[in-house]
Design goal:
mainly beta; globular; Pectate Lyase C-like; 30% strand; Pectinesterase_cat; 197 residues
Length: 197
C-alpha cells in the first residue's frame, strides 16, 4: 500500500508470507482480520491497528517493520487479539531495518507467541536501535517475564501517548508535518452509506 491516509474498516486480509505491505504512508485498520505466516505485516509505514484480529500460521515473526529513523511511530496494535495454528510458533516482530518501530497495547496473545516475544533478525546491533514496546499484554503468550531484555515495557503514561491522533496526525515526512488526520471521520462519513456492515 502506497497511498497515504488509507482506511480499512472490517476487512479481511488473507495470505501467507508478506500478507500486508505498507509503504511510506499512513494506514488505519479498524476491526479487521489479518492472517499470514512469516513477516505478514511488513514495511516502513505508520499504521494503527484498532481492535483487529491477527491469525498467525507460524514463521519467524508477525511483523517485519522497516520504519525510518525520523518517524516516531511504526506499527501500533491497540486492543487487538492474536490467535494461531499452534503454540510457540512465532514472535511479535523482527526488524527488517534497524529502526523498526512496533508497539502492542492492551493486546491478548495466545500461546502461539514465543515467550521471548521478539527477534533481532540475527543481528545483535538491531537490539540497540529497534523500537519495540508492549503494554498490558495478556493471554498465554502475553507474559512479559521472559521477553528479550531490549523490549520496552511501557508505563501507563507512556502507553497513553499511543492515540490515533498522535500516531496518525503527522505526515510521513522528514521533517514531520502535522496535518491532524483523523481516520475515524472517514469511517463515520462512510457509515451513512451502509459500508459499516
Amino acid at each position: 500500500m502506497g497511498g497515504d491516509k488509507a482506511v480499512f474498516n472490517k476487512c479481511h486480509f488473507l495470505g501467507w508470507q508478506d500478507t500486508m505491505y505498507g509503504g511510506r504512508s499512513r494506514q488505519y485498520f479498524k476491526d479487521c482480520y489479518i492472517e499470514g505466516s512469516t513477516d505478514f505485516i511488513f514495511g516502513p509505514s505508520t499504521a494503527f491497528f484498532d481492535s483487529c484480529e491477527l491469525f498467525t500460521k507460524g514463521g519467524s515473526a508477525i511483523t517485519a517493520a522497516s520504519t525510518e529513523e525520523y518517524v516516531t511511530y511504526g506499527y501500533v496494535f491497540k486492543n487487538c487479539n492474536i490467535t494461531g495454528t499452534g503454540p510457540n510458533i512465532t514472535t511479535l516482530g523482527r526488524p527488517w531495518r534497524p529502526y523498526a518501530a512496533v508497539a502492542f497495547i492492551n493486546t491478548e496473545m495466545s500461546s502461539s507467541i514465543k515467550p521471548e516475544g521478539w527477534n533481532n533478525w540475527g543481528n545483535p546491533d538491531n537490539e540497540a536501535t529497534a523500537r519495540y514496546a508492549e503494554y498490558r499484554s495478556s493471554g498465554e503468550g502475553g507474559a512479559t517475564s521472559q521477553r528479550v531484555e531490549w523490549v520496552d515495557i511501557l508505563t501507563k503514561e507512556e502507553a497513553d501517548l499511543y492515540t490515533i491522533q498522535n500516531v496518525l496526525g503527522t505526515k510521513y515526512n522528514n521533517p514531520p508535518v502535522a496535518d491532524d488526520w483523523n481516520p475515524l471521520e472517514v469511517i463515520e462519513e462512510t457509515s451513512q452509506y451502509g459500508n459499516d456492515n
